[in-house]
Amino acid sequence: MAMLTDLLVISAANRIIGLIRDVFVALDPDTAQAVEVLLYFLVMVLYAILCELLLNGQTLGKRIFKLRVVDASGLRLEPSQVIIRNLLRLVDGLPMFYLLGGITCLLNTRMQRLGDIAASTVVVRIPEVSHPDLDNVLGSKYNSLLEHRHLCARLRQRVTPEVAAIALEALTRRDRLDPVARLKVFAGLAAHFRELVDFPAAATESLGDEQYVRNVVEILYRAG
């Protein structure tokens, strides 16, 4: 469906090319044909390359259907990879209707066509992201850490998304934890956050580990 959407976009661009050709036909038919062939090639190749470079691995069709091209190893997608996978799209389309590319997809576990294999890329689905109910987790308690805005900014810079998600999950599930385990979990998280950023003692001296983690989570998820 994403590919069909992109083909509709390309078809619309080809209609515009036809109008340009008609202008050149009146001047020189040979020039008109050369311009038409060149523009068709540029649209077919450059459309996907430019979209995936500018839209973070997505064409318009991929964006609508929540797909994205990513590096197969999880690294940042490089421009060279985008160019390689789209230049080889012409080979994947052989002999017709993407037959070669489709067969290649069926023969490997990552559903990669030849262009993806050569560029070390893979097309993935973008999962729906659910937003946490922060009101139930954080409550309305006063956050003394928020008084130090520059340290809050530094904390948001240094905490990884994975650790932030763990801290939020710990708060969400805290009432289901064994009391001893609950103390250990929040002691470990609080110690980690204190190592990353050293807030003044006046802002932290009255905070237990769990409240400290709650304040940090509020900074990470709400106060940005």
Structure characterization notes:
It is a single chain. This protein has about 220 residues and is mainly α. The chain folds into two domains: about 1-125, no CATH class; about 135-220, no CATH class. The chain is about 65% helix and about 5% strand. It has 13 helices and two strands, in the order αααβααααβαααααα. It has helices at about 1-25, 30-55, 60-65, 80-85, 90, 100-105, 115-120, 135-140, 150-160, 160-170, 180-195, 200-205, 210-220, and strands at about 65-70, 120-125. The longest helix is centred in the N-terminal third of the chain and has 26 residues, at about 30-55.
Q: What's the total number of strands? A: 2
Task: Describe the largest sheet.
Answer: 2 strands, antiparallel
- Helix share, percent: 55-70%
Give the CA-based shape.
elongated
Helices, by number, come to 13
Secondary structure category: mainly alpha
Estimate the mean pLDDT confidence.
90
| Unreliable stretches covering 5 or more consecutive residues | none
| Percentage of β-strand residues | under 5%
What is the H/E string? HHHEHHHHEHHHHHH
**Cross-sheet strand order for the largest sheet:** 1-2
Number of domains: 2
Short description:
The chain is mainly α.
